[in-house]
């Protein structure tokens, strides 16, 4: 709720603060129990920072993160550790996130050890159980990360996230580094796990096609802000924000009759240290008006939980 993460920019010999990067600038949304919420946008739009702030892997500058009724921002020590068991993260690059010198058993057992859960024998048993759950075998336990393919390593990353029986998983581009043929296997696994274990996902992606089939709702971010949020089918059927429309026009449609006009955006994403005035998308928008350059559009519900921040939809 009203989540912000600002980074100071320092300069000169005295390291004086000369500006600020608004990586996440007043973002609010709700993830419902059992759903998959897709968070989409180009790199640098603040989606990973948002996801990490939810787990307090990054401390937000301000705002609230309410999990099951508790604002976790104020939590410290034991209370924070307990809360963290409920929320885990799966990273984009499974190789970088697994310690190459540890075998799989040691890697998977670690969260249990850190939280003081189970005897060594029980932890061993849990590791073997979870390897099976993610489609690997207990004999993989004694192997090392480099002995696995990218897809298998991501299965290990998912198993590690599941060790503590979390309720929420933040998946930060979990399939972006994988071959297309492997992507769908990992996505299918994640969907099976969600159904079997009652998981809730915040699924971060830079590409709308990846989240299309797995998300119940999707939020689109641009330059640190949410610009559109809606139920997934509706977003794909009737995207409202010009940015969402441009992103979607780059995604091949599965319906051969749907002729979608390819919208090419002008220019690059502006620097988040010097964002445009008014609507931050105005430098690239084909519908820009004077109002857009001066007045920042509110993020409003235009009906049925479809939110958009754009002057085109002001009643
Ligand atoms: Fe484009 Fe104006 Fe809407 Fe911004 S507010 S997306 S510039 S039409
Ligand atoms: Mg990222």
Automatic annotation (TrEMBL):
Molecular function per GO: ATP binding; ATP hydrolysis activity
Stored SMART domains: AAA
Domain ABC transporter residue range list: 1-248
Source species: Brevibacillus borstelensis AK1
PANTHER family per the UniProt record, alphabetical: D,D-DIPEPTIDE TRANSPORT ATP-BINDING PROTEIN DDPF-RELATED, TRANSPORT ATP-BINDING PROTEIN
Superkingdom of the organism of origin: Bacteria
Listed InterPro entries: AAA+_ATPase (IPR003593), ABC_transp_ATP-bind (IPR050319), ABC_transporter-like_ATP-bd (IPR003439), ABC_transporter-like_CS (IPR017871), Oligopep_ABC_C (IPR013563), P-loop_NTPase (IPR027417)
GO biological process: peptide transport; transmembrane transport
Lineage, uppermost ranks: Bacteria, Bacillati, Bacillota, Bacilli, Bacillales
Protein name: ABC transporter ATP-binding protein
Record key words, sorted: ATP-binding, Nucleotide-binding, Transport
Similarity comment: Belongs to the ABC transporter superfamily.
Matching PROSITE patterns: ABC_TRANSPORTER_1 (PS00211), ABC_TRANSPORTER_2 (PS50893)
Cited Pfam families: ABC_tran, oligo_HPY
């Amino acid at each position: 709720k009203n989540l912000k993460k600002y980074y100071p920019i320092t300069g000169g010999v005295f390291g004086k603060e000369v500006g600020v990067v608004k990586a996440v600038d007043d973002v609010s949304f709700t993830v419902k129990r059992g759903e998959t919420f897709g968070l989409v946008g180009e790199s640098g739009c603040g989606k990973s920072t948002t996801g990490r702030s939810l787990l307090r892997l990054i401390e937000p500058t301000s705002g609230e993160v309410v999990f099951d009724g508790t604002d976790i921002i104020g939590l410290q020590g034991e209370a924070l550790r307990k809360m963290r068991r409920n929320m885990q993260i799966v990273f984009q690059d499974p190789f970088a996130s697994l310690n190459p010198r540890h075998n799989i058993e040691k890697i998977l057992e670690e969260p249990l050890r850190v939280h003081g859960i189970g005897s060594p024998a029980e932890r061993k048993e849990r590791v073997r159980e979870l390897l099976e759950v993610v489609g690997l075998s207990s004999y993989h336990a004694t192997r090392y990360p480099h002995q696995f393919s990218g897809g298998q390593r991501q299965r290990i990353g998912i198993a590690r996230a599941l060790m503590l029986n979390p309720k929420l998983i933040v998946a930060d581009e979990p399939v972006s580094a994988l071959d297309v043929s492997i992507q769908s296997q990992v996505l299918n696994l994640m969907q099976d796990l969600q159904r079997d274990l009652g998981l809730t996902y915040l699924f971060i992606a830079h590409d709308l096609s990846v989240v299309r089939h797995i998300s119940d709702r999707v939020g689109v971010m641009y330059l640190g802000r949410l610009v559109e949020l809606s139920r997934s089918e509706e977003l794909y059927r009737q995207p409202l924000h010009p940015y969402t429309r441009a992103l979607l026009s780059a995604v091949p449609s599965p319906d051969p009759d749907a002729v979608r006009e390819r919208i090419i955006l002008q220019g690059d994403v502006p620097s988040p240290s010097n964002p445009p005035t008014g609507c931050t998308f105005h430098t690239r928008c084909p519908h820009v008006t004077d109002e857009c350059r001066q007045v920042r559009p509110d993020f409003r519900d235009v009906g049925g939980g479809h939110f958009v921040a754009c002057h085109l939809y002001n009643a």
